[in-house]
Amino acid sequence: MLPIVAEYAADAATRSQVIMTTHSPQFLDAFREVPPTTTVTKRENGETTLHTWSDEKLNYWLREYSLGTLFKSGELEQMQ
What we know:
about 15% strand
C-alpha cells in the first residue's frame, strides 16, 4: 500500500502543497520515482531545528542509498 500512497501524494503535490510526516523507512523508500522535498527535524538541548535538504545534496546520497536507509542509519539527521 505504501507505494500507492506515495504515488497519490506525489500526484497531489503537482496541484497543491502536500506535507507528510513519517518515521517509516518503508514509506520513505516508496518515493523512488520522485524523491520528495526532505526536511529533517533535530532536537538538541531543548531546541528543535529543521533542515531541508537541497535537491543536489540529497540526489548525491540517493545514488548509493535509499531515503529509508539513510533514515534508519541516522545519517539523514547527521549529514547537515
